[in-house]
Amino acid sequence: MGCSSCSSGNDGQPKGCKNNGTCGTDGCNKLTVFDWLSNMSLPGGAKPFSCVEIRFKNGRKNFYKNTENLSLSIGDIVATESSPGHDVGIVTLTGELVRIQMKKKKVEEDSEDVKKIYRKATQKDIDIWQKARDREESMKVRAREIAIRLELQMKISDIEFQGDGSKATFYYTAEERVDFRQLIKEFAHEFSTRIEMRQVGFRQEAARLGGIGSCGRELCCSTWLTDFRSVNTSAARYQQLSLNPQKLAGQCGKLKCCLNYELDAYIDALNSFPKTETKLKTEKGTAVCQKIDIFKGVLWYAYEGEWMNWHKITAEDVNEIIASNINNEKVASLEDFASELIEDTKTDFENVVGQDSLTRFDQPKRSNRRRNRNKRKNKKRGSSEKQTVASNKPKAGNSENKNSNKSNNQPNKKRRSRNKNNGKS
Predict the structure, then answer these.
(1) Is the pLDDT of residue 412 over 70?
(2) What is the separation of C-alpha 49 from the centre of its chain, rounded to a whole number of angstroms?
């Protein structure tokens, strides 16, 4: 979800709002919130809610009190209380929706964790903030080099400077406890600032860094998901997924959070299915379940000893067979129930330019040299024949001249004959 000015340009390139994440709709940032109460006015006599939600780098959000009664709106840059100094953030939500968010996250309005807003950020505050942000990438590379040199089993994933540049928070992940006392000393000497180390989980690391998932969309944890619930491999079993850790794991290395999205629907659908461990007893033999299809509501069974022959049966028929087996009754065979589900699986293959012919490689391939020679010979023969035919044909211009000369000679002949007759007389 982006603002209207973030559409593509004439050449297909994204235009962007040029606000670098501070647009008025807050649609270019992580964990964005749509204020659907922005067009509604408060009832008469009601005071606006005094707390405001403010976002910092990579989706970190906190609630702050607007003790100065500043007129704040989404996208405003403000200076907030911090220890020590002050921090700079962007307003993401105001009004009654902040009250709902605080209630959802169980944050009291009078809590000590809810600090206050000092003022709207001045140009000087923004310049200091931007200079500190520009240092973060080079510091992260240097910090990783120092950690590798000290042979510490940790990964520094992100660095966040405070708004006034007085403190830098290093976010890292580690599987075991890390003794970074010497590391902090070298960091303080190298970067000349106050250092704070904060350990985060692998899912929190993926949420901060962001990325594109296997579905082709941006990660849920970096766009809208805020609570990380535990995911078990049983969720994949209920959904009939192969237990392949490479496909089930996300960018954080843990099981994908989306495995829980449709889990309840699968569990409800499986209530009408018989248990796969239950065997069907027939007069022909005992059948074992091989596969199920939840969407189509069918199961595949195979007789013991005939594992290659599967029989497709609906869940209702399987429940009837199990009910008869409970009453010590056996059905004749599974073919009686599977006969109605027989489908014509024949496929018509077409010869696409001889690609499916088995003998297409038996004939030797003709060389292109012979073809080129034959083409040249045919061209020479055709040109020589054309020349001979053209030489045998009379020219159109000569025939016309001859006809004109004949017509001109006829009156001369008449004159000569008249002169001869006059001389005789």
Answers:
(1) no
(2) 39
